[in-house]
Design brief:
about 675 residues, alpha/beta, UDP-n-acetylglucosamine1-carboxyvinyl-transferase, Chain, Rossmann fold, five-stranded parallel β-sheet, 21 helices, about 20% strand
C-alpha cells in the first residue's frame, strides 16, 4: 500500500489482464456484526482487509466476541445477544456503516442489559449525521447522549442500568438521508428477540434500496427472514433469533469493480478485454447495476455469474442521464467516465453524496474542474462535460477512498498528462492494494514512466539518498551495486566457479531480487546485511568484469523501470543504464567527507579504523573507477551536481525533490 504524501500517475494508455476484487465492504461489515451478535461460531471467508473492517473487528473484540484471524478468513464467536462486556470505548474511524450499525445494536443491548459504551470516530465521522437514527432509538427506551454536537457522533450509549424497552409500536426512521440508519435498526432489532412482531416504518422515500436488499439477504442467511412491504414497512417475525450459518463467503466488492469496469471501457481493446473476477450476475450487491450504466456509455460487456469482461466499444464514450439513487458510490466513477464522453452527463438523485466521507458533490465538482471539465452542481445532481483541453492536475482526495480511486482513471487522458493523487493511502478504507492492482493491468505511454538516477563515487551516500527519495515518491528503488553483490552471493551459495562466465550470466538472468524499505530480499530471504560482507564485495568485483554477466544484469536493471516510477543509484545509472532519465543527480561529496562518514560508520559497529587510510583508499578507488575502460565513473552531461558534503540525508532528499518538482507540470500544492 502506498503511504506517500502524494502519488504521481504517469500517462496511461491501455488495459488488459485480470483483476481479482477484494471482498465487499458492505457485505464484510454486515456479516461481521451479525456474526458478533448471533449465537454460535461463524467462519467468514474472503473478508475484506481494510480500515473499515479493522475497526469493526476491534469493536467486536471490545464486546467480548472471540476473533480468530487468518489471512482473509476470520472466525467470530458470537455473543448470542447477551453482553459480555459492559463498559467500553469504541473507536470506529470514518466507517459510516460500522458507526450506524454498532450504535443501533449497542444502544438496544446496553439499555436493556445495563451497559455503558462510548462511540467515536475520526473528526469527519463526527460531522456525519446520526440524529435520525438516535431519534428512532430513544422512543424505544434506549439511553443515548451526544457528547459532542447534537445530531452527530461521538455518543454515549446506556447509563449502566437496565431499562425496559418498548418494541410493541411501529418504529419510525427516516430513509431519505442514509440507508445505513435502516440497516442498523434491522440488524439490531433482529438481535433483540421479542415475543411479538417488530415493525419498522420508513419516513420519506428510502434511498439506496439495493443496500437494504443486501442487509435483508444477509439477515436471512443468519436465520431471520424480514418481511419487506414495498420498501416502506419492514416486519421482523416474533421470536426471531440470529443464528450462525456456520460459514459464509464474502463476494467481491461491486463498488470497487466500477473502477476496473470503467478502465476496460476506456482502455481495453475489444479482442483483449479486462476481466474482473469476484462479482457478476450472481451478485447480491446493487452496484452490479453500474455495469449497465457503463454499457449505456458505450462499453462492450460480457457478464458471467462471478465475473465480467469489459472492453472499449463506442469511442468517445456517450454521455448519459441517470438516476443514481440505486448506485450512489459507483456513480462517482460515472462522473469521471464523463471526462471521456461526448455531450453532457447528468447524474441525479445523489443528495446522499453530501453526507458521505466528504461532501462528494462539491469535491467531485472541484476536482473535475481542475482537469478542465465543465461542471454544474446542484443539491442532488452533478453535470459533467469533457475538457476542451486537458490539464495536469493535483487531485485532493479529502480522505475519501472513492475520490482517490475514480480519479486515477484520469491518467488515461489523450493529452498524455500525468495526474497527482494526494494522500493515496486513503484507499485503505476499502481497497488497500488498489494502486498496485491498477498498475498490474495498465500500460504506460512510451517513455512516460519517470526515472531519477543518483550516481556518485564510493561512500557518497547515493544508496541512502536514492532509497529515501524512492520512499517519498512511492517509486521503485534500484541499488545497482546490490545487483552485482547479489549475483556474487548467488554464485557462492550455488557453488558456481568464479571463472564460469556462462553459469554466472545464467544466475544473473534468473536473479530473484526485490528492494523494500530498508531491506533487500534474494529469493525471498532478507540478505541486506549479508550483501555487505567483505567476501561478497570482493567476488562482486570479479563477477562484474565478465561481459555476459554485465549484459544480463543490464537487462535485469532495466526491468525495474515500471509503474509508477523508478529511483536508481549506482556509478553509471545516468550515463549507461538509463541515459534518458528524467532527472540525473551526481553526488560530489569530497573524499575527506566520505572518509569521515565511513569512519563513523565503522566505529559505531565496533570496527577499528583509521580515517587517513580510509581517505587514501577512497581516493585510489575514485581514480580506478574514473579511468576504467567500461562505464567509467563520471557525471552525465545533463546531470545536476549535488555537493552533499554538509547535507543531512533529509536535506539531500529535499534538494532532489525540489529539483524534481521543478520538472513536474503540477502547480504548487
Amino acid at each position: 500500500m502506498f503511504t506517500t504524501r502524494f502519488l504521481d500517475l504517469p500517462p496511461l494508455q491501455r488495459a488488459a489482464g485480470t483483476v481479482r476484487l477484494p471482498g465487499s465492504k458492505s457485505i464484510s461489515n454486515r456479516v461481521l456484526l451479525l456474526a458478533g451478535l448471533c449465537a454460535g461460531s461463524t467462519r467468514i471467508d474472503a473478508l475484506l482487509a481494510s480500515d473499515d473492517t479493522r475497526v469493526m473487528l476491534d469493536a467486536l473484540r471490545a464486546l467480548g466476541c472471540g476473533v480468530e484471524h487468518d489471512g482473509d478468513t476470520v472466525r467470530i464467536d458470537g455473543i448470542g445477544g447477551v453482553l459480555r462486556a459492559r463498559d467500553s470505548d469504541i473507536f470506529l474511524g470514518n466507517s459510516g456503516t460500522s458507526t450506524r450499525s454498532v450504535t443501533a445494536a449497542l444502544a438496544l443491548l446496553a439499555s436493556a442489559q445495563g451497559g455503558r459504551f462510548a462511540i467515536r470516530g475520526v473528526p469527519r465521522m463526527h460531522e456525519r449525521p446520526i440524529g435520525d437514527l438516535v431519534d428512532a432509538l430513544r422512543p424505544l427506551g434506549c439511553v443515548i447522549d451526544y457528547t459532542g454536537v447534537a445530531g452527530f457522533p461521538p455518543l454515549r450509549l446506556g447509563d449502566g442500568a437496565p431499562h425496559a424497552l418498548s418494541l410493541a409500536e411501529p418504529i419510525r426512521v427516516r430513509g431519505d438521508v442514509s440507508s445505513q440508519f435502516l440497516t442498523g435498526l434491522l440488524q439490531a432489532l433482529c438481535a433483540a428477540s421479542a415475543d411479538h412482531e417488530i415493525v419498522i416504518e420508513v419516513v420519506g422515500e428510502l434511498i439506496s434500496k439495493p443496500y437494504i436488499a443486501i442487509t435483508l439477504n444477509l439477515l436471512a442467511r443468519f436465520g431471520v427472514v424480514v418481511r419487506n412491504e414495498r420498501w416502506a414497512r419492514f416486519t421482523i417475525p416474533a421470536g426471531s433469533r440470529l443464528v450462525s450459518p456456520g460459514a459464509i463467503q464474502v463476494e467481491g466488492d461491486a463498488s470497487s469493480a466500477s473502477y476496473f469496469v470503467a478502465l476496460g471501457a476506456i482502455a481495453a481493446e475489444h479482442g483483449a478485454p479486462l476481466r474482473v473476477e469476484g462479482m457478476g450476475s450472481g451478485s447480491i450487491q446493487g452496484d452490479l447495476a453500474f455495469v449497465g450504466a457503463a454499457q449505456a456509455m458505450g462499453a462492450n460487456v460480457l457478464l458471467g455469474e462471478h465475473w465480467v469482461e469489459v472492453s472499449r466499444g463506442s469511442w468517445p464514450l456517450k454521455a448519459i442521464t441517470l438516476d443514481c439513487n440505486h448506485i450512489p458510490d459507483a456513480a462517482m466513477t460515472l462522473a469521471v467516465m464523463a471526462l471521456f464522453a461526448t455531450g453532457t452527463t447528468r447524474l441525479t438523485n445523489i443528495a446522499s453524496w453530501r453526507v458521505k466521507e466528504t461532501d462528494r458533490i462539491a469535491a467531485m465538482a472541484a476536482e473535475l474542474r481542475k482537469l478542465g471539465a465543465v461542471v454544474t452542481e446542484g443539491a442532488d445532481f452533478i453535470e459533467v462535460n469533457a475538457p476542451a483541453a486537458w490539464r495536469a492536475a493535483t487531485i485532493r482526495t479529502y480522505d475519501d477512498h472513492r475520490i482517490a480511486m475514480c480519479f486515477s482513471l484520469a491518467a488515461l487522458n489523450d493529452a498524455a498528462l500525468p495526474v497527482r493523487i494526494l494522500d493515496p493511502q486513503c484507499v485503505a478504507k476499502t481497497f488497500p492494494d488498489y494502486f498496485e492492482t491498477l498498475f498490474g493491468v495498465v500500460g504506460a505511454r512510451p517513455n512516460a514512466v519517470p526515472i531519477i538516477t543518483v550516481d556518485g563515487p564510493t561512500a557518497s551516500g547515493k544508496g541512502t539518498l536514492a532509497s529515501a527519495v524512492a520512499q517519498r515518491l512511492g517509486y521503485h528503488f534500484l541499488d545497482s551495486g546490490a545487483v552485482y553483490r547479489a549475483t556474487a552471493l548467488a554464485a557462492m551459495r550455488s557453488g558456481t566457479r568464479t571463472d564460469d562466465e556462462q553459469r554466472l550470466a545464467q544466475l544473473a538472468t534468473n536473479l530473484d531480487l526485490h528492494f523494500g524499505p530498508g531491506e533487500i530480499r534474494l529469493s525471498g530471504q532478507d540478505v541486506t546485511e549479508t550483501l555487505r560482507l567483505e567476501e561478497v564485495g570482493a567476488l562482486a568485483s570479479k563477477v562484474s568484469a565478465f561481459p555476459l554477466v554485465r549484459a544480463a544484469l543490464r537487462t535485469l536493471q532495466l526491468s525495474f523501470h515500471r509503474l509508477p516510477g523508478l529511483v536508481a543509484d549506482g556509478r553509471d545509472m545516468g550515463t549507461v543504464i538509463f541515459p534518458g532519465a528524467d532527472l540525473k543527480i551526481y553526488l560530489t561529496a569530497s573524499a575527506a567527507t566520505r572518509a569521515e562518514r565511513r569512519y563513523k560508520q565503522l566505529i559505531s559497529k565496533g570496527i577499528s579504523a583509521n580515517i587517513d587510510s580510509l581517505r587514501a583508499e577512497l581516493e585510489l578507488r575514485d581514480a580506478r573507477d574514473q579511468t576504467r575502460a567500461v562505464s567509467p565513473l563520471r557525471p552525465a552531461a545533463d546531470a545536476m551536481l549535488l555537493d552533499n558534503s554538509a547535507f543531512s540525508v533529509d536535506a539531500s532528499v529535499d534538494a532532489v525533490l525540489t529539483a524534481w518538482e521543478q520538472r513536474r507540470p503540477f502547480k504548487a500544492t
